[in-house]
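Sorry, I am new here, but would you mind making up a protein's amino acid sequence and the tokens describing how it folds?
***
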Amino acid sequence: MTRTARTVVLAVVTSLLIGVAVAYTLHAAGRSESGPEQELSEVTLDSPGRIVFRTTMAGTGRDHLAAVPLADTGKDDGNDNRRISPTACLVFHAAKGTGVCLKLANAALHTYNAVILDNRLLPVDSREMAGTPSRARVSPSGRLVAWTSFVGGESYAGLDFSTRTAILDRRTDTLHNNLEDFSIIRDGKPYTAADVNIWGVTFAADDNRFYATVATDGHRYLAEGDLAARTLRTLRDNVECPSLSPDGTKLAYKKRVDGTDPSRPWKLFTLDLATGRETPTTETRTLDDQAEWLDNDAVLYNLPGDLRADVWSVRADGTGTPVLVLRHALTPAVLRP
């Protein structure tokens, strides 16, 4: 093929790809805005006792952030009088008046931003992401913000994916753009490998320690991170997307279990950090989510629903039965004192 012909083919292919991206975006926008008109109003992050989440309820506010008092949750018909904000996000988390919103930046270029939100869900900072949004977390103080994106692949179920995880210190404006640059200690020894992937950060209260998943050599380790030392130390295998309880004593996470759906091979477990005791929750359905703690005794998580997803809760000690918390909702964040 001549150079001129290659140039023509490249131009045609590029044009087609852009057209497909634009068409998809318009379709998604139309889908989000179809359905009943929904009033948009202010949602803030300064009222403890509420859940803020991405609503997937059909209507003009679909995929916007919404808030519901904890007392109004658990309604099977989804009629929970959710207050819907003008802010739309794909992935969200919040703590102490700080939010992080992972959202589309440019549909044609397929780029995404991690947008830092203030108490009124207004943007105060924005950082370009390396790929497609996946996970997000804010530290209990609101100082540290983490996000994970897929830079290759779109599911944690297989081996053919690549992630990029960043942590932003809002107080010092320091961005740790890729946690793969941290020193990894596996089985007590320094470890390097080309296949390392890191995702699913959850922060301790001291704004230095954190936990995350470190995947390498066919293993998916729970690792404890030290932000100041820029290290990650593996603790145990088969732990993904950890979430630290408000009192810092337990982790909830998804664990691969044999005999489950290969596309969703995980079930929800908890770990007592003092004793090392692992407990399976009574949730028997498989899930792919980074859990959020409702309080020190119960965990929130997403399961597929009729409008993309619902939020459920289950006790962390392996007793009780799962309870529906929110219909048509994703990425919940519990506002705490």
About this structure: Residues 1-32 have pLDDT under 50 and may be disordered. Residues 96 and 141 are 6 Å apart (CA to CA).
